[in-house]
Write a structure and sequence with these properties.
Length: 259
């Protein structure tokens, strides 16, 4: 009898633990540690894509609770048709200097929900997402452009978690390394200096995304977006009020005359 009870208790424990390891989910709210990346658990409203927290076309758009090193790091809504993220959402809580040497990873569960709930390095031709070989030796001068930037991550593990291709889009290299990078640095500086919670800890909610093009692709597989956008909100402890700001730009080469 005791053996049966032990067996049942093990099954019960597993039934409680397994959903928490889920990576690709139906709703971000399915995983509490994933829901926290959005202010009050409220996701963006994107007509025809995500409304009221519900994905409109669940065969195409997949919410991912990005899981790395035993922890949820950020949230992504991924477009399996265009093979790029719609957006990535994260909580900014500070940063450390440096960029790790990290190979780019994929999300195994986009290909098969039974696979491991963790990012992994894989350059094979997969169906629903980009792989590193899509970007290699491309003649369009395109970078793997982070949505959740490595420079906004709090520690080494968080930085490494941003190197998943479900968190990247083909981005013009001069734009990615130029005005967009400058904007990311200025936003980071503002958040560090102004955004504090009730415990005087740095905290801001950030969502960064891309608007896909109609037909421009990389390697005939991966959509090259027309636009990049980012928005944040936080409690500004200097102004004693909530603030929000947004930036957007065309995904084109920077020029001296116009960013």
């Amino acid at each position: 009898m005791m053996g049966v009870l032990n067996h049942l208790s093990t099954l019960l424990l597993l039934s409680l633990l397994l959903p928490a390891l889920s990576h690709v989910v139906e709703k971000f709210s399915d995983v509490k540690d994933c829901e926290k990346f959005f202010l009050e658990g409220t996701t963006p409203n994107l007509p025809g894509i995500l409304v009221g927290g519900t994905v409109q076309d669940q065969n195409r758009y997949k919410p991912i609770c990005q899981f790395y090193k035993d922890r949820y790091r950020f949230a992504t809504l991924h477009d399996t048709t265009n093979r790029i993220p719609v957006f990535s959402a994260y909580t900014f809580t500070g940063k450390v200097v440096g960029r790790p040497s990290q190979s780019w990873m994929i999300e195994p569960q986009l290909e098969d929900l039974k696979k491991q709930p963790d990012m992994k390095v894989d350059n094979k031709a997969v169906t629903h997402q980009a792989v590193d070989t899509d970007y290699e030796n491309n003649n369009k001068h395109l970078d793997r452009g982070h949505l959740f930037p490595c420079s906004h991550a709090l520690d080494d593990a968080a930085k490494r978690s941003t190197f998943t291709l479900t968190n990247a889009v083909p981005q013009n290299e001069k734009f990615n390394r130029g005005s967009w990078k400058t904007m990311e640095c200025r936003v980071r500086k503002y958040l560090v200096e102004n955004c504090k919670d009730n415990n005087n800890k740095i905290k801001a909610y950030v969502v960064t995304g891309a608007v896909p093009s109609s037909s421009n692709t990389l390697n005939n597989r991966v959509n090259i977006p027309d636009l990049m956008w980012t928005a944040y909100c936080c409690y500004n402890n200097n102004l004693k009020q909530w603030v929000a700001q947004a930036h957007w730009s065309k995904n084109v080469q920077d020029t001296n005359k116009k960013h």
